[in-house]
């Protein structure tokens, strides 16, 4: 068990390294901003108020509450718990509760399992309840969905990737949750990797024109090109793409494209290994057959845009 007491908002908070086995972890500054935004939605502008809790619970009352998994899944987002308590306590002018963690991000949870115990002013615990549950439940849902794909791909050499189809304002949390579930992050945004898609090709006049324009303007970034036929994939290689996005290909076409690309590797200025990513119409029941074509990655938007939350609850001990 790990006990964390957060009393100074300016010190380096250990909660952002523990409880987490996920590297790299969430940025503490991002967590603070996300929690502040969520609390303002719930309580109104600082200091805000919870009219029910503050009317029925005395400020001096203390107690303990348990963060409990109601359904099986993979845990993520426990790193938000202490920051939420810290900010609520600051708003209310009360002592910051302590948190004892019984699990860490990336762990498998069973129904009824206590993930963390929170002790301190009951007002703080109840005011913080919905915000910490919203964030942790969302992250754990994404991690749970990702873990199912990771299990299906085990032993194939392929890995599951996320996409930019994330909840606005929560991308860092959701991509962190993908890592907690055993997946891999693709690009974080439009700024770090170039992805040449059909509209870019139309605008630039050709695949080569689009690749060369990116290379000239942003020479520091990797360039991925989308292809939905074998011919397009080879054209993208000739144009100098660093890696390929193979979109909506039936499995036989995908396998043929992988073979064609691998045959070209290491010659004609093609890298020794070109990373290949399958995407589009991917489902869990065909994940393994897609992976066995030899692609390096399967990118699945549903990890973040369609994952249901993991049911978590905060139970105040009697």
Architecture overview:
- This is nicotinate-nucleotide diphosphorylase (carboxylating).
- It is built from 11 helices and 13 strands.
- It is elongated, with a radius of gyration of 23 Å.
- The chain is α/β, with parallel strands linked by helices and 318 residues long.
- The protein has a 6-stranded parallel β-sheet. A 5-stranded antiparallel β-sheet has the order 1-4-6-2-13, with helices on one face.
- The chain has 2 domains: 2-141 and 308-316, Quinolinate phosphoribosyl transferase, N-terminal domain (Aldehyde Oxidoreductase, domain 3); 153-305, Alpha-Beta Barrel (TIM Barrel), CATH 3.20.20.
- Helix 6 (198-204) packs across helix 7 (207-217).
- Mean pLDDT is 92; it is low at 1-18.
Summarize the topology:
Blueprint: E1 2-5, H1 28-43, H2 51-56, E2 62-69, E3 73-74, H3 81-92, E4 98-101, E5 108-109, E6 114-121, H4 122-153, E7 159-161, H5 171-180, E8 193-196, H6 198-204, H7 207-217, E9 222-227, H8 230-239, E10 243-247, H9 251-264, E11 275-279, H10 287-291, E12 297-299, H11 302-305, E13 312-316
Parallel strand pairs: 7-12, 8-9, 9-10, 10-11, 11-12
Antiparallel strand pairs: 1-4, 2-6, 2-13, 3-5, 4-6
Helix pairs in contact: 1-3, 1-4, 3-4, 4-5, 6-7, 7-8, 8-9
Give me the oligomer status: single chain
Question: What would the principal axes of the Cα set say about the shape?
Answer: elongated
Low-confidence stretches: 1-18
Widest beta sheet: strand line-up: 7-12-11-10-9-8
The total of beta strands comes to 13
Tell me the series of helices and strands, N- to C-terminal.
Answer: EHHEEHEEEHEHEHHEHEHEHEHE
Known CATH architecture of the largest domain: Alpha-Beta Barrel
Structural class: alpha/beta
Total number of helices: 11
| % residues in beta strands | 15-25%
Radius of gyration: 23 Å
Largest beta-sheet details: 6 strands, parallel
Summed up, the domain count is 2
Helix content: 25-40%
Could you tell me the CATH topology label of the largest domain: TIM Barrel
The CATH H-level superfamily of the largest domain is Aldolase class I
Overall pLDDT confidence = 92
Text of the CATH class of the largest domain: Alpha Beta
User: Separation of termini?
Assistant: 22 Å
């Amino acid at each position: 068990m790990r006990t964390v007491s957060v009393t100074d908002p300016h010190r380096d908070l250990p909660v952002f390294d523990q409880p987490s086995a996920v590297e790299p972890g969430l940025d503490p500054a991002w967590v603070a901003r996300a929690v502040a935004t969520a609390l303002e939605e719930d309580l109104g502008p600082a200091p805000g108020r919870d009219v029910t809790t503050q009317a029925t619970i005395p400020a001096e009352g203390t107690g303990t509450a348990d963060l409990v998994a109601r359904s099986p899944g993979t845990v993520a987002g426990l790193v938000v718990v202490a920051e939420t308590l810290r900010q609520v306590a600051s708003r209310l002018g009360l002592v910051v509760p302590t948190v004892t963690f019984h699990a860490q991000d990336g762990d498998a949870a069973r129904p009824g399992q206590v993930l963390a115990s929170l002790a301190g002013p009951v007002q703080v615990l109840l005011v913080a309840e919905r915000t910490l549950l919203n964030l942790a439940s969302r992250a754990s849902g994404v991690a749970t969905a990702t873990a199912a794909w990771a299990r299906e791909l085990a032993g194939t050499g392929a890995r599951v990737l996320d996409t930019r189809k994330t909840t606005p304002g929560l991308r860092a949390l959701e991509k962190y949750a993908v890592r907690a579930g055993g997946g891999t992050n693709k690009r974080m945004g439009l700024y770090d990797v170039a992805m040449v898609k059909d509209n870019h090709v139309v605008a630039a006049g050709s695949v080569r024109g689009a690749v060369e324009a990116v290379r000239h303007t942003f020479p520091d970034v990797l360039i991925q090109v989308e292809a939905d036929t074998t011919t397009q994939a080879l054209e993208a290689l000739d144009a100098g793409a660093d890696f390929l996005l193979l979109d909506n290909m039936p499995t036989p076409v995908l396998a043929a494209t992988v073979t064609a690309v691998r045959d070209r590797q290491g010659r004609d200025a093609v890298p020794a290994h070109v990373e290949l990513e399958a995407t589009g119409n991917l489902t869990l029941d065909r994940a393994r057959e897609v992976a066995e074509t030899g692609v390096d990655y399967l990118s699945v938007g549903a990890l973040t845009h369609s994952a249901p939350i993991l049911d978590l609850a905060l139970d105040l001990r009697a």
